[in-house]
Amino acid sequence: MSTASRDTGADPGTDPAPPGEPDGSPRPGRRLTLPPGARPYVAPLALYCVTKLVGLTIFARLLEHAGDYRTKDPRFGGGAHWWDVLSTWDGWWYLQVAQHGYDPKPLQPLPPGGMFTVQQNSVAFFPLYPGLIRGVSEVTGLGLFGSAILVSVLASLVAAAGIYAVVSALAGARAGTIAAGLWAVAPGAGVEWAVYSESLFVAIAAWACYCVMRGRWVPAGLLAFLAGLNRPTSAALIGAVGLAALVTLVRRDGRREHGVAGPVYAMIAAPLGLLTYITWVGLSMGKLTGYFTLQREGWAHYFDWGHYTLDVLRNIAVGRNNYLFAYPVPDLIAFQLVIALPFLVALMLRRRPPLVLVAYALASIVTVLGTQQMFGNTPRYLLPVFPLLLAPAAALSRLKWPGLTVFFTTAAVASGWYAHYVIFELGIP
């Protein structure tokens, strides 16, 4: 050992403390650094945020250029400022729940002859998102609108990070970063920074799937439970988590690696949030199937095994709009997305993703296409199906950054129209 090592007590091969800092403590004012675990998420979140900001800016410019929102009802796509549009339609209902809570009543029949046969009620909108809005408002002092946007933006960042985590685990960090950017420009992405619950749901779904992939069954079950308090379509995620847990239990190697308690817990906990809320709504309305009746007769949304979707596809294919909830421009974009789905699914399956991702994606697609609802909203309803981004992200990861810059710049600008303006102003989100 050298004399210097003996005198300072340092181990061989280590750097001595800087002059004036014998204990190696950081100097006052030294630049803060991110924890090592957070550093991988900087690039995907930066790409996501920049892309979203570009799209939102184009959206605002288009709204101001058209000016139609100024003449519309503030509840139905209008407002005094362009940003008010972000809290209309479903956003109005979420803010009502955040402000007043629920007032479940027995189903109220409407006069015959109209499209809807019962009066709409806010219990159709699940409680997790408006509950967070109210909580953030109480803690921060922000108004409900500002709190709602804050919740959506923060949730979207958690969602983008979750998508990165899942895709990077399967196709590498570069593909994960690109996947986060693709989610920012996906059709329907305009609701990610609006008063809608999609960002919160995708945040929960992405990390629930990641937990299953890592064998963390307790957080996976808890996240699926929370998803059930956020959206009825959480049934796809709940089923995927439950199926993955069941397959783990059936396989001897799965039991040896993961044990029994964790998967069993996930299977039991996952559906409890959804079942609890649906049951509460039913009991409050005096009819156990009250939630589904409200959706069917108050919003004309119900599972019809794909009959409505096929009817729309036949009409659009021959240039007609002879179907319920016809909005030509959003419907055409949705038509193109539906036509692309088999290709996207095939590419996803070629990557051999884990069972939880396959089950979640396929169940979500079947739910969306098998339900009568506004066809023009199909891109929004498919927004949570992030596993479909796996193959495109992996393919794009072969491009160098100059090519990717051109791609994302073009997509970000275009998304201001197809992913934002179209659904909010040319249709009903």
Automatic annotation (TrEMBL):
Disordered as annotated region, ranges: 1-35
Segments traversing the membrane: 41-63, 139-157, 163-186, 193-213, 233-250, 262-283, 332-349, 356-375, 404-424
Superkingdom of origin: Bacteria
Annotated protein name in UniProt: Uncharacterized protein
Gene Ontology cellular-component terms listed: membrane
GO molecular function, one term: GPI mannosyltransferase activity
Biased composition (Low complexity): 22-35
Membrane topology recorded in Swiss-Prot or TrEMBL: Multi-pass membrane protein
Pathway annotation from the record: Glycolipid biosynthesis; glycosylphosphatidylinositol-anchor biosynthesis
GO biological process: GPI anchor biosynthetic process
InterPro entries assigned: PIG-V/Gpi18 (IPR007315)
Subcellular location: Endoplasmic reticulum membrane
Keywords: Endoplasmic reticulum, Glycosyltransferase, GPI-anchor biosynthesis, Membrane, Transferase, Transmembrane, Transmembrane helix
